[in-house]
Amino acid sequence: xxxxxxxxxxxxxxxxxxxxxxxxxxCCVIALxxxxxxxxxxxxxxxxxxxxxxxxxxxxxxxxxxxxxxxVYYWFGExxxxxxxxxxxxxxVHVYSSKDLYNWHDEGIALSVVxxxxxxxxxxxxxxxxxxxxxxxxxxxxxMWFHLEFKGTRYRTARSGVAVxxxxxxxxxxxxxxxxxxxxWPKNIKEQQKQVPSQYRDYDYxxxxxxxxxxxxxxxxxxxxxxxxxxxxxxxxxxxxxxxxLYASEENSTLHISxxxxxxxSCSGEYVRIFEGRFMEAPAIFKHDGIYYxxxxxxxxxxxxxxxxxxxxSIWGPWQELGNPCIGEDAELTFHSQSTFIVPVxxxxxxxxxxxxxxxxxxxxxxxxxxLPILFRNDRIEIEWLDEWDLRFFDHF
Length: 397
Fold this sequence. Notes:
Tachylectin-2, Chain A; 21 strands
C-alpha cells in the first residue's frame, strides 16, 4: 500500500486532467483498501490474543455460543463494559457475524437489558450469562436461552431466561424466566429421592461442596415443586431436530439434560441427572459418529481448573467420564480458560473447535478467547495448545 501511494503521489504532479483522473483512482484504491482491512483482519486463530472486529474493537461476546444459519456464523455472548468487575449485565447480549470464523462483523446488541423498570427480570445489573441461540425450523423463530440471576440476589435465583426473534441478529424479545421442569421427576430418579427433605431447605451454595450428609439434603426433591436450579448452561440440537438444555443444577453439584418442547420455548418435563455430586459447570456438548461428547469444568469461580470430558451413546446416558481432554503445558488449567461451546468446522464433517473464555474479572471487557482444534485419539478427545493455527490444520485428519 505504501508503494502504491508513492506512485500515485508522483503521478499527481502531472497535468490537471491527469491529476483529476489519478485523484479518482486514488480515492477508489483507498476505499477498497479500507474495506479490505475492515473485513479481513485475520487468516488464522491466535488464542488468547486481542481479537478485533470490523471496527478494530476487541470482540465483546463472552461466555458465548455460535449459530450457523444460511452460510453465516453468528457469535452471541455477554457484553461487558470497561472497568466493571464481576458478571453483572449493564448492556445485554452482543452478536457478531462471520463467513470464515476468523473475521467478525459487529451486528450490535441482540438482547438489551432493561434500564427503566426496576421490577423487570432482566433489569440493568442482573446477571445474564452464557447466552445460546438456536433456530427452530418449524416455527421460523430464533430462540435464545441464558442463565439469569435477578439483580441483588447473588446466585440464589438460578433461573433460565428465554427470548425470541424473527431475525437472527434480533432484536430479541424477552419472554420469561423460570426454574426448569417444575413438577417433573427426572427419568433416572430413585424412589428414595422423591422424599421431600426435612432439613437444608435454605441451604446456600458454598462453592463446590455439599453438607456431610448429602442424602438428607436431597435437592432434587427440595426443588421439585418450584423447579430445578439452573446456572451455567448450553443448548444442543440433535440430528432429528430435538433440542436439549444442559445446565448446572442442585447447587451446582449435578448437571441436568432436559429435552425442550417442539417450539424450543419451554422444558418438556423429560430430563435426566448426570455427573451426580461431581460439581461441573461450563457445559458444552457435540456429536461425532453417533457418539455424544461433553466438555465442562469444575466449580472454582473465576479461577481456571482442569477441564473434564465424557461420552455417551445416548444423550440420556449413561455418561462415561474421559478425564481432562487438554494436554501439554498448562493443561491442568485448561490453558487458563473455561469451556463455553463447541463449533463444527465449516466444510469438515465430524471436526470441531473447542471454544473457551479466559476470564479477566478485574476488567471483564478484556476477557480473551481460546479457540483450539479438537482431536479424536485413543478413544477420547484431546485439545492441545497452539499459538496460531488456521482451518488447514484439519486437512491432515
